[in-house]
Each structure stands twice: as structure tokens, then as C-alpha cells.
Design brief:
- The complex is a heterodimer of chains A (about 260) and B (about 220).
- Chain A is of the alpha+beta class and about 260 residues long.
- Chain A has 3 domains: about 50 residues, no CATH class; about 45 residues, no CATH class; about 140 residues, no CATH class.
- Chain A is built from 9 helices and 8 strands.
- In chain A, about 30% of the residues are buried.
- Chain B has about 220 residues and is mostly helical.
- The radius of gyration of chain B is 24 Å and the shape is elongated.
- The chains are: A alpha+beta (about 260), B mainly alpha (about 220).
- At the A-B interface, helix 1, helix 3 and helix 4 of A face helix 1, helix 2, helix 3, helix 5 and helix 6 of B.
């Protein structure tokens, strides 16, 4: 038996991969000292597995994001394309990119900018599924309080009357949920405006969520952003929703 | 000759996600221990789940769903490590019987006697030692020691022969233990030099001998 084979036998015995007859035969071939070492190595492996396990869990936000991404996928399994199909697809892609970036650079759309906020253009169905509370001002207010956001949420009707920014009339609250931020510091208020999804994101100043919003703002993914008390809030969505920031109370100071 | 792939498009998205959710913590843990970056882990997790969904028709019903997903995840981890520059490290002249020869190393018996306390004292050094392994060695150790996959399942996940799995395990474990031993020696957790003073009972024994064996 070569050294490599002997090492492999030790691995197989250590990992319980040998049949009882094989294990007995192998252990009989060991010296008493080697038998002691084998037992000690088994204890070491057990301790090592526990240390590496570390009670690591998949964060809820990561799981929700994965579910959302799968839901957004077309759902149909990819089929093998013939070479000419691939050729025409590539040609079409080049044409689109050429027209977007070369022919009319002023018409670049947000889709060509890498997104900081993963679900910027989520659908209303996603909103309804993601919301953790009923679509009432009181429930969303309570949700904010539970998540440590000490801001007052105005009723939409009241805010519409007070808003000087021409808030759209066809706007309603859909609910609230956690924003897609790895450190769980961002909350999302979900709205329907003229049949389109719009989110009002809020995070404590200095938090990971606030940095994420800042990055998204620099990336032109945000309609408007403001500091409201100890929080930063931003409106995101491809449908303009003027006046939405005014729903969260404490005098807003626009961010330059 | 290519084997026909069973059609499995009948599975609904909810059923599919329920299957993934059952193992989501172990999948996430495996990715985190293989790519070592939370941001990359989140991305790899999402893209692997999406890839599994898009390729669900390639999964043969009745076979091991968990191992099938691990295979997709492992491919994503290898790609992520290549892209982030965490390329597999060379095996560096690791002798074939590296695992067995460790038994003769000074201080190694101390590690084996008190594994929990040694691993606790090593702390981050354990993470560093795992990071130094090649991606294949790391994958084998994680899949076997932590996630308890069989050699056959690991071979399927990594698409390598069972013998190669054993070699990765043997060399990876040897390298990991050697790094921990070196660290433990540096920190004085284990003995680095041979004992100069005889053990107590030997000393007593020699005293008895010197006294002509009169002492009891």
C-alpha cells in the first residue's frame, strides 16, 4: 500500500465511509498508538465541524432578494439556440447598444447604469407580496416604530392637501417591508402611484442603508432624497411621485 | 453517448423555492466559507438559486436535489473566486502522506488532546487557515466535515473521481492542521520543545530507584 493509499484509508475510516468489515480490518492493521490517534482525530474533526458551522444562517433579506430575482426571471427554461439565432440576437444587441450609446448619448436610460438598489423597478404584485403590514397609515406607522424609525407618517389625503408639489391624485399606500440592505437598516414604504410602483426608502443617518441610498443617488437611481431628522429618505421608482417625501415628518433639508 | 435528460418543468416555482428554502442556511454557509466575502456570498447565492431555477429541467426527479444544487453553487463559487482573484493555491510540495506524518510533529498530540480549547484559542487563525486552502480542498472539507455529504455525493458535486476527493480531503486536512499547529506553537498554546524536565511520576520513580526502592 502506498503512502497516498494509506492516507486515503485513514480519511475513509475517519469519515465513516468504510463498511463495518473494512473498518474492522483496517483498525486491526493499526498499532495501539495509531488507534489512539484515529480516535483523537475523530474528536478533532467533530470540534472542527462545529467551529466551521458557526451557526451561520442565510439572512432573510438575502433570501427575499433571491426569491424576487427568480420571480422576475422569465420562468421558461432556456432552450438551445441555433447558431444563426445567436448571431441575430448578438447583432440586435449591438444595434441597441450602438443607438443608445453612440447615436443618441443623451437618451441613455437607467437600465444601462449598474443598479445599487436591486429591485428598483419592482412590480405592484411584488409589493403586495413583500409587504409585511396591511395597507393602512396606522399599520405602516406602527411598522416604522417597531423598526426603530421615529418619524411620523402623514395620511395621504392630508398630505395631498398640504403638498405644494402637485402630488398625484391616483396614489395609495400598499404597505411596508424591509429594504434590500445587507445590514437590515433600511425600511421601504410601498406605494401605488398612477398604477405604477413607487418606494419611499428610509434609513438612519450613518447606517449601511443610508450609504446605500447615497450611492443610489449618485447612480441616478433616486428621484428625490432628503434628510429628515436623524434619517435619510429617498423616493425610487420609474414613475415620478412628487410630494412623497413630505409624508414623513420633521422638516426636510434637501440634499445637494 | 449523452444520457437523455428527464423533463422536470412541471415543478411550480413555489415547490421549487420550498425545496431550496429547506437547505438555504447550509447553502449560504457553504458559499460564505468558500468565497469569504459577504457581498460576494449574497450575489453567488442569488445567482445560484436563479441558475438552478432556470436549469430545473436538467434535474432528474428521484435523484439528489441537494447535491444537484450544491454542484451549481460550487461552479458559481469557483467562478466568483476566479473573478475576485481568490484563485486556488498550488498544492506546494505537500507530501503524499502529509496527514500521517503529522503524528510525529511536536505538539500535535496536545492539539488532538484538547481540540475544542485549541480551536477556540486559534479564533481567526482557523479562518485564515481555511482561506489558504485551494478552492477544491476547501469545498471538500466543507461538504464532508460540515455539511456531511458522502464521498460519492462530493464527487458528483465537484465532478471528480472519489479518489481525488479523498486526496483533497487528506491534503487539505493536513495543511489545515499544520497551519493551526504552527500558530498554536507560536502562541504557546502547545509545547514547541521537547520536555527537559522528566514527568513527575518518572521523577518519583527515579527517586524510588535511587533510594533502593524503600519508599512507598
Amino acid at each position: 500500500m502506498t503512502d497516498n493509499e494509506r492516507d486515503n484509508m485513514w480519511m475513509a475510516c475517519l469519515d465513516g465511509e468504510l463498511s463495518s468489515a473494512e473498518a474492522s480490518a483496517f483498525e486491526a492493521s493499526l498499532t495501539p498508538g495509531e488507534r489512539d490517534r484515529l480516535a483523537a482525530e475523530m474528536r478533532f474533526e467533530s470540534a472542527l465541524a462545529e467551529a466551521l458551522h458557526g451557526d451561520i444562517k442565510c439572512p432573510d433579506a438575502v433570501w427575499r432578494r433571491a426569491r424576487l430575482i427568480v420571480r422576475h426571471a422569465d420562468g421558461a427554461p432556456r432552450k438551445r439556440r441555433r447558431a444563426w439565432t445567436a448571431f441575430f440576437a448578438a447583432a440586435a444587441a449591438i444595434t441597441v447598444l450602438f443607438s443608445a450609446y453612440v447615436v443618441s448619448p443623451t437618451h441613455r436610460t437607467r437600465e444601462h447604469t449598474p443598479r445599487v438598489l436591486a429591485t428598483l423597478y419592482a412590480s405592484l404584485d411584488d409589493f403586495a407580496e413583500k409587504s409585511e403590514v396591511p395597507a393602512t397609515t396606522e399599520a405602516v406607522q406602527a411598522y416604522l416604530r417597531e423598526n426603530g424609525i421615529n418619524l411620523r407618517l402623514d395620511n395621504l389625503d392630508t398630505a395631498r392637501k398640504q403638498s405644494g408639489e402637485g402630488m398625484h391624485h391616483d396614489m395609495s399606500l400598499v404597505g411596508a417591508c424591509e429594504g434590500e440592505c445587507p445590514d437590515h437598516t433600511m425600511q421601504a414604504l410601498l406605494f401605488r402611484c398612477c398604477g405604477r410602483p413607487v418606494r419611499l426608502l428610509v434609513a438612519p443617518l450613518g447606517s449601511g442603508g443610508a450609504h446605500m441610498l447615497q450611492a443610489a443617488n449618485e447612480n441616478n437611481e433616486v428621484q428625490r432624497m432628503a434628510i429628515i431628522g436623524k434619517y435619510v429618505a429617498a423616493v425610487v421608482g420609474d414613475h415620478p411621485a412628487p410630494g412623497l417625501l413630505g409624508l414623513l415628518k420633521e422638516p426636510p433639508r434637501p440634499v445637494v | 453517448m449523452d444520457q437523455p435528460v428527464a423533463e422536470n418543468t412541471a415543478i411550480t416555482m413555489d415547490e421549487f423555492m420550498a425545496k431550496i428554502e429547506k437547505h438555504r442556511n447550509e447553502f449560504y454557509r457553504y458559499i460564505l466559507r468558500t468565497v469569504w466575502d459577504t457581498g460576494v456570498t449574497d450575489d453567488v447565492f442569488a445567482s445560484a438559486v436563479l441558475a438552478a431555477w432556470e436549469n430545473r429541467h436538467k434535474f432528474t426527479p428521484g435523484t439528489n436535489f441537494r447535491a444537484w444544487v450544491y454542484r451549481i453553487i460550487t461552479n458559481k463559487c469557483f467562478v466568483a473566486n476566479r473573478e475576485t482573484g481568490r484563485t486556488p493555491q498550488p498544492l506546494e510540495n505537500t507530501p503524499e502522506s502529509a496527514f500521517l506524518t503529522l503524528g510525529g510533529e511536536r505538539g500535535y498530540q496536545d492539539i488532538l488532546k484538547h481540540p475544542e480549547s485549541v480551536l477556540e484559542q486559534c479564533g481567526d487563525e482557523l479562518n485564515m487557515a481555511i482561506k489558504k486552502l485551494s478552492t477544491a480542498q476547501r469545498s471538500c472539507i466543507m461538504l464532508r466535515s460540515v455539511e456531511k455529504l458522502s464521498y460519492k455525493e462530493i464527487a458528483e458535486v465537484l465532478d471528480i473521481p472519489v479518489g481525488t476527493v479523498m486526496t483533497h480531503l487528506s491534503r487539505g486536512r493536513a495543511r489545515l492542521r499544520k497551519d493551526l499547529l504552527n500558530y498554536a506553537r507560536e502562541r504557546g498554546v502547545v509545547r514547541d520543545r521537547p520536555r527537559l524536565i522528566p514527568k513527575k511520576r518518572n521523577l518519583a520513580g527515579s527517586l524510588r530507584e535511587a533510594d533502593g526502592g524503600t519508599q512507598s
